[in-house]
Design brief:
293 residues; mainly alpha; MetI-like fold; two-stranded antiparallel sheet; 2 strands; 73% helix; 3% strand
Length: 293
C-alpha cells in the first residue's frame, strides 16, 4: 500500500515538473542563449559563423550615444506611464468601491481597456490624437473649436505614448486594488467616522495601509510591462518623430533584426534586463520592505 507522503510527493512532482520544463524552455534557455550571443560577433553571410569577442559588445553598447538616447526615452516613458496608471487605477478603485447602483456595469466598463491589445491601443490612440486626420480634430471642428495642436511633436510624443500605455493597463490596477479594498473590515471605517476623520485622513490612515503592498506589487508589474512595451509605440509612432519615442525595445528590434547585429543586440538586451531588475529592486528597497510590514 502506498503511503500518504509518497502520494503527496508524486502529486507535487506531477504539478511541478511541467512548470519547471516550461520555465526552462521559455525563460532559462532564451536568456542563457542571449547571454551567450552577447559575447559573440555573428557573421551571417557565407555561412553562419560565431566569433567570441568577450565584453566587446557590452563596451560598444556602453559607448553608443543612440543607446543612451533610447535609455532616457525609455525611463521617461516608464516613469510617466507607471505614475498615470497607478494614480488612475487607484482613483477608479476608490470611486467604484463606493458605488452600489449599476456596480457590475460600471466595473465592466472600467475593465474593458485591459481587454484591448497593445496593437489595437496603438491604432486607437494614433487615430485619436493626430492633428489633421484624428478623431479629436473632427470633433473639435464640429464644435467650432478648430484644429487641436499636433500631439505627436517631438516634445509631446513620448507623453502621448505613455498616456496610451497607462490607459491600457490602469484597469488592471483598478481591478486588483478594488478587490483588496473590498477585503478591508467595515468596522475600521466606522471607527474612522467616530474619530471624525476627513475623507483624505480615512484614506491615508485606513485604506492605504491595507492596500499599499498591493499597490507596490502592481507598480512593479506596470514598470516591467512599460519597460518591455513595443507594439504600442511601434504602431503609434514607430520611434518618431526624430527618435523622440525610440525606446530600448524598438532600438533592440532595429539593431538585432533590421541591421542583423545579433551579438550587439543581445548585449543591449542584457542592459535592458539589468534596468528592469534594478528598477524593481530599487522599488523594493525604497518602498516594498515597508509596504509588506
Amino acid at each position: 500500500m502506498v503511503s500518504q507522503p509518497s502520494q503527496n510527493l508524486k502529486f507535487a512532482l506531477f504539478i511541478i515538473i511541467p512548470t519547471i520544463a516550461f520555465l526552462l524552455t521559455m525563460v532559462v534557455y532564451p536568456l542563457g542563449y542571449s547571454i551567450w550571443l552577447s559575447f559573440h560577433n555573428i557573421k551571417q553571410f557565407g555561412g553562419l559563423k560565431f566569433r567570441n569577442v568577450g565584453l566587446e559588445n557590452y563596451v560598444d553598447v556602453y559607448g553608443d550615444s543612440r543607446f543612451w538616447d533610447s535609455t532616457w526615452v525609455t525611463l521617461q516613458f516608464v516613469f510617466e506611464s507607471t505614475l498615470i496608471a497607478i494614480l488612475t487605477g487607484v482613483g477608479f478603485a476608490l470611486v467604484l468601491s463606493g458605488i452600489t447602483r449599476y456596480k457590475l456595469l460600471l466595473r465592466t466598463i472600467v475593465i474593458l481597456p485591459w481587454g484591448v491589445s497593445l496593437y489595437a491601443t496603438g491604432i486607437l490612440f494614433g487615430r485619436l490624437l493626430r492633428d489633421r486626420t484624428g478623431v479629436l480634430t473632427f470633433l473639435f471642428e464640429k464644435m467650432g473649436i478648430g484644429l487641436i495642436p499636433e500631439l505627436f511633436q517631438a516634445h509631446l510624443a513620448v507623453h502621448m505614448t505613455a498616456l496610451a500605455q497607462a490607459w491600457n493597463i490602469a484597469p488592471l490596477v483598478a481591478f486588483f486594488v478594488l478587490t483588496n479594498i473590498e477585503t478591508i473590515p467595515p468596522q475600521l471605517y466606522h471607527l474612522a467616522k467616530i474619530d471624525k476623520l476627513t475623507r483624505w485622513q480615512s484614506f491615508w490612515y485606513v485604506t492605504y495601509p491595507q492596500i499599499r503592498f498591493t499597490v507596490f506589487v502592481l507598480t512593479c508589474v506596470v514598470v516591467i510591462f512599460s519597460f518591455k512595451a513595443y507594439d504600442l509605440i511601434a504602431i503609434m509612432t514607430n520611434g518618431g518623430p526624430a527618435r523622440a519615442t525610440q525606446t530600448l525595445p524598438l532600438e533592440l528590434i532595429e539593431v538585432s533584426f533590421i541591421k542583423r547585429n545579433l551579438g550587439y543586440g543581445a548585449a543591449m538586451s542584457i542592459y535592458l534586463l539589468a534596468m528592469i531588475i534594478g528598477s524593481t529592486v530599487l522599488l523594493y528597497v525604497l518602498w516594498g520592505r515597508r509596504a509588506e510590514k
